[in-house]
Write a structure and sequence with these properties.
With 344 residues, this protein is of the alpha/beta class. It folds into two domains: 173 residues, Spore Coat Polysaccharide Biosynthesis Protein SpsA, Chain A, CATH 3.90.550.10; 163 residues, Tetratricopeptide repeat domain (Serine Threonine Protein Phosphatase 5, Tetratricopeptide repeat), CATH 1.25.40. The strands form two sheets. Strands 3-2-1-4-7-6-10-5 form an eight-stranded mixed sheet, with helices on both faces. A two-stranded antiparallel sheet has the order 8-9. Helix 9 packs antiparallel against helix 10 and helix 10 runs antiparallel to helix 11.
């Protein structure tokens, strides 16, 4: 039997640490928490839930902290979660790893909640919060270590396998983001300076600007990332899908609707199977129709067509940044609202 450990780094997570640990406790053999300088009740709460808690100073480097925490584990499998995440689905699949050889990295579906002011939530009334998927390697065999000061990635040549495990994440909600201050932005700006030709860091810096409602700066970062990636998806990274959706959103929010439409036209051949792409395009066209009422008669059938296309495609949660419902009930909601309010 292979042992499974939860391995975490935390700091001032009294709000959510117990919730996270309770969601995982039934499915693992051990819970390891490395505290990096909490001034609240995080440590006491973690110990009360049965976690083994250690301390280390924060050195402004997430991979150093992750690796220090992994060094404390002797388990065959290590599940890496943050305190603002909870295991919402897939406990039995996690438990089944006890009988599975640790010869791959397991990717899990981390579903991040966004509020209506954030980049991944539709403008549809009644949908103030939604969850966007990111498939991340979080189930690691013993010996795997991270690199990168922020948005760290595991270094490992083993194959990656998608597991039916879902973690719910609420750290991008506005009330949580306020507490993170400038820490992430400064680390990301340093990463861009170190690797200015790497579009990944521009993408991540744009995300940080976006979740703090700095939409102009977000577009500047996204625009460079898109230019560096080139016009065709091809073999470009999975996060390109999320980048395109976010770029369309920030252009829309900034009122640069013609630029958003031009971007959508350029990217459309890359995303024939993305309900999210057509959903966001419908939002862009709807705003454009509102700003150009003389063209509404021409635009309304196109808007209706984008959301009908969402339903025809259906859900595609495997795409990075996919929002649950855009291929089903959210698109139907928009179509119903369009018919009721505009008679379309």
């Amino acid at each position: 039997m292979h042992r499974i450990a939860l391995v975490m780094i935390v700091r001032n997570e009294a709000r959510c640490i117990a919730r996270c640990l309770r969601s995982v406790k039934p499915w693992v053999d051990e819970m390891i928490v490395l505290d990096t300088g909490s001034a609240d009740d995080t440590v006491a709460l973690a110990r009360a839930e049965g976690a083994r808690v250690h301390s280390a100073p924060w050195q402004n480097d997430f991979s150093l902290a992750r690796n220090a925490a992994l060094d404390l584990s002797e388990a065959d499998w290590n599940l890496v979660l943050d305190a603002d995440e909870t295991l919402s689905e897939g406990g039995p699949a996690l438990q089944a790893l006890r009988e599975t050889a640790p010869d791959f990295l397991g990717r899990i579906d981390v579903r991040s909640e966004y509020a209506s002011a954030g980049g991944q939530t539709a403008s549809t009334p009644g949908t103030a919060r939604q969850a966007a998927s990111s498939w991340l390697p979080r189930v690691l065999p013993r010996g795997v270590r991270y690199e990168g000061a922020i948005h760290e990635q595991p270094l490992c040549a083993l194959p990656r396998r998608d597991l039916p495990i879902v973690a719910a994440h609420d750290g991008y909600l506005p009330e949580q983001m306020q507490g993170k201050g400038e820490r992430n932005r400064l680390l990301l700006e340093a990463a861009v300076q170190r690797a200015p030709a790497d579009p990944y860091w521009r993408y991540q810096l744009g995300k940080d600007h976006e979740v703090h409602d700095r939409f102009g700066l977000a577009w500047q970062a996204y625009e460079v990332a898109l230019q560096q990636l080139g016009p065709h998806a091809g073999r470009t990274p999975a996060w390109r899908h999320d980048l395109v959706l976010r770029a369309l959103y920030v252009l829309k929010t900034a009122g640069r609707l013609e630029d958003a439409i031009h971007l959508a036209q350029a990217e459309m051949p890359n995303w024939p199977d993305s309900p999210d792409f057509y959903f966001v395009l419908g939002d862009v066209l709807l705003d454009f129709a509102a700003s150009q009422p003389q063209q509404a008669g021409e635009l309304l059938p196109m808007i209706r067509g984008t959301w009908e296309r969402c339903l025809a495609i259906g859900e595609n949660p495997a795409l990075e940044g996919a929002v649950h419902g855009r291929g089903s009930h959210l698109a139907r909601h928009n179509l119903d609202a369009l018919r009721q309010t505009l008679g379309a």
